[in-house]
Amino acid sequence: LAEASLVRAVSERHALTGACLLMILTSNSGMAVASTAMLPSSFAMVCVTASAAASLRGKHRLACIACVFAVVFGWPFSGIAAIPFGLYAIYGIGFVATLSVVALFTAISVAISIACDSFMYSKSGELRLVSSVYNLLKYNVMRGKSDLYGVEDAVFYVKNLLLNFQLSAAFSIFAPVAVSFAMAVKAYLLREQAKKDPKANKGKVLAVIQKYRNDWRAMLVVSLPFPLVTAFFTTIPHKEERFLYMIYPCVALSASVTIGAFTESFIKISRHAFKSKVPSFVIALSVALALLGTMA
Question: Residue 31 in contact with residue 252, Cβ under 8 Å?
Answer without folding.
Answer: yes
